[in-house]
Amino acid sequence: MATNTFGRRGVVAPPSRGSFQPGSLQPPVAAPIAPRPLPSDGTLFRDNKLLADIPFLTIGLIFVLLLIFALQRALAIDIAQDGTLDVRSLIAQGASGYDLVVGRGEWWRIGLAPLLHGSQWHLIGNCVALFIVGVRLESLIGRGWFSLIFVASAVAGEAGSLLGNGSGTVGVGASGAITGLIAALFVSSFDPEADADQTISRLKTSLFFGVPALLPLAFGASGNVNYYAHAGGALAGAALAVMPWLAFFSYDSLPRSASMTLLAGFVGSLVCAGFAVAHYPSYMADAVHYIRASEVPVKADEMVRRSSDLVTRYPKDPRAHVFRAVSFLEQANLGAAEAEARTAMSLAASDVAGGPVRSGAQGLMAVLLWAQGRTSEAKAMAAEPCRAKLPEVRRILQKQKLCG
User: Which runs of consecutive H residues, i.e. helices, occur in 56-195?
Assistant: First the structure.
């Protein structure tokens, strides 16, 4: 009797053994040799366990991500000392964000952002997680459904990012798609036909990567990690993986259509890349007005020392005016510092990547108002940065008791 399981696709039960009857023993009759049919589900290596266990699709995806990042580096305006690509380069290459996707109607970014990465460490972390999870999941559910979960989770991750992150935030990375695979591995860990060792191994792997990818959402999800993309991807991956348990279908039921998902995703990404190429010149032309990644001051004293030069060279960059405001604050020139902070807030409001800068400028403005004895204005100004995902700014405002 056939059963729906999470086990290897193409596994069949052994034939029933006939009874031994000495009195009716007949000489064997040679049967005609028929050509062996190809596997109907398109699995190239279903009869070779060793080859079937090699995660070819996982390795291929990692190779593609590495190639794309090499192209990113070649096209980047600038690269910081820590290997981080300039944010303006990421925007020109297809990074997503609410202001870009919804505000400007550039929906093509949804098909590119999951394939891009902001630094080599960002890429390495995602590739390590993808490989470890892929080794366990790809052979378990088949390459077709693995492709379906990867693509669906990537799109769902972008949806989660757009819904959860505020305006002025830019994001890239395959973590939404990978978190979907992690969630699928967690669900498939409860396969009733798997032995205890397999179940424990799958659970450990899914929890090892899944808990840090999702738990910070319970504490505000502050920092530079796009936890909302993780959440969207995890929901999609878990929903697809749980369907066999609900008897909607098994992993063997739609292998060919599922296998086409990766091809459809690839074609869709190429179409999105065409839109990116068309918009690339205008975004690169705009990028010259902003401080390059390698020029951004790292230490506070450097920020103060170079603030005048940066404002002169990059008057449209709100970060330069924040640096200048800090410099005036150290000189106790509160009026000039307030003027620079207001300029930074104004510029950041119209900047598609200015969300964190705007919150920082508002926090600085709140401190300046507090220093001038304008406490009620300071608390009103501090309301938004106190809710923002910038721990350092929030900590300074809480020290001055400006966060209610």
Answer: 56-75, 87-93, 98, 120-141, 143-164, 175-188
